[in-house]
Amino acid sequence: MTDAGMADPSGRRLRVGLDVGGTKIDAVAVDASGDIRGRLRRATGWGDDAVVESIASAVTALAEESGFALADVGSVGIGIPGLVDVDAGRVDHAVNLGVQSLDLATRAEQTLGVPFRVENDVKAAALGAAALSGVAGSMAYLNLGTGVAAGIVIDGRIWRGARGTAGEVGHLSVDPRGRLCGCGQRGCVETFCGGGALAKAWGRPGALPIRDIFDAADAGDPQAAGLRDDLFHGAAAAVRVLVLSADVETVVIGGGLTALGDRLESGIRAALHAGAEASPFMRSLRLDERIELLPAGSPAAAFGAALVGASITEKEIVPHG
Amino acid sequence: MTDAGMADPSGRRLRVGLDVGGTKIDAVAVDASGDIRGRLRRATGWGDDAVVESIASAVTALAEESGFALADVGSVGIGIPGLVDVDAGRVDHAVNLGVQSLDLATRAEQTLGVPFRVENDVKAAALGAAALSGVAGSMAYLNLGTGVAAGIVIDGRIWRGARGTAGEVGHLSVDPRGRLCGCGQRGCVETFCGGGALAKAWGRPGALPIRDIFDAADAGDPQAAGLRDDLFHGAAAAVRVLVLSADVETVVIGGGLTALGDRLESGIRAALHAGAEASPFMRSLRLDERIELLPAGSPAAAFGAALVGASITEKEIVPHG
């Protein structure tokens, strides 16, 4: 890791990055060399005030636990679900956080006296995944969580597109007779490989429904085997879309479902391989060799948020893995 | 049209662009102001030698008919189907031209003594469509011809991607139970809206099968109506993929099927509108307002090839519409 993305002309040494999820905040402090100097997880608050407070307390707790002062923090970057206006530092429609519209950067800056920058969580994670996985050139980060979305990173920079829908592959239909999606369409990629859609289709109680599906499929349950196949099929479709439209070199897969580890990776690889069997063109793309899974517990999302924050003083983020 | 893409430090005034198709070459001469000063169409030869000869004779005939000398030609750009190595000026697998592997730029330069540059035809057309339609920012050019492919242009430059498959949306499957594609997969976008696939599914004789399908559909033929719906559905799916992955602002539609004019455009618009009806998310994208059709007979492909040629002396092509 070089310090290209982390240099801070103001002399403050540390960049804090926060991945703000529906239940918890993952916070890291990154030094000028790009090394992670501290990390902690805190519960996320619900609603505008509680979200701001939980973010502020995550930063102060991180400083305390890691042994640095707030004065050492050059910037805080936040990755947060919802529609983010990066320039204004505002987030809208973060429904899982009880937030309708929040001037997050301004509110957090007023609370802590440190510059904040806000980015959509998947885009921030994409930036972090590109840096941590050492992928140069072009890559997509495919997030398989409750929902499905991707972020595209080209030469170390987030690809924004024209209207902020770059990488929204979760809502492309790949089966006109498929399950109804929460978005209103049928057979969206997300209905195949989104954790929320799969848990709903499974319909049985349990804290870890996707793991239950995999275990039941291993035990011979045909419904579970079908849903597991759907997951592999949907993720493979998302990979194909990203390569055949934006032509990224590598697709890095992250998100909650990566807790399944090799059970997930080998299944997606096999689906890509099987999908290419009849097609010399698809075989020539070698898609099964162009995916990689983030390790479970990877700090990519929070690390990417730190890179987003670092861009307050850097015009361009050019991390080198 | 400004002269940004056409300035020629060598003093030669004109840029020639050739769109080399399976049956004919469309040739234009573009002056330093970006205005088209001459245009003609010639038959394309079959096989390496004949392709080179027909290209050379198209340039000399264009010069003769338009009243300029070869010495006035600063560059010739060629858009040609197949796998193009832009740096080497080579084209491989141009099966419709009987070409396996041809050092086209070198051979043509030896014949005419003018610098040549070669580009994939859809990518060249995308560049020309972006310039002629005056689209700034990001756009995709969706070519509906015998096959289906797209080119992406960002800020006036062709988006190449990692391995040359950017915009290959024709071979994304959108229906696992769909027709078998020439590529070996089922339900590819191209099986829905490629002229070759539709003509094959139609299976009746006629020089203009897609027009026949539209006419028969108008007359109440249910098979024709189904195929026409497929065409609209497939083109709409391609538009969705381009916006939800690369997030281009506008999709400009070109290629042979645009001879159908408003019958095509209104149908694709209606399919996009209908596909968004149940989905507030898709409605918010206003896709039906983000497509436009190239006028029939548009010189976009040859004009784009002229821009490609102009890049011999210009490091970047930045046309302004």
UniProtKB/TrEMBL annotation, chains A, B:
InterPro entries: ATPase_NBD (IPR043129), ROK (IPR000600). It comes from the Bacteria. SUPFAM superfamilies: Actin-like ATPase domain. It holds the Pfam family ROK. Belongs to the ROK (NagC/XylR) family. This is ROK family protein. It comes from Microbacterium algeriense.
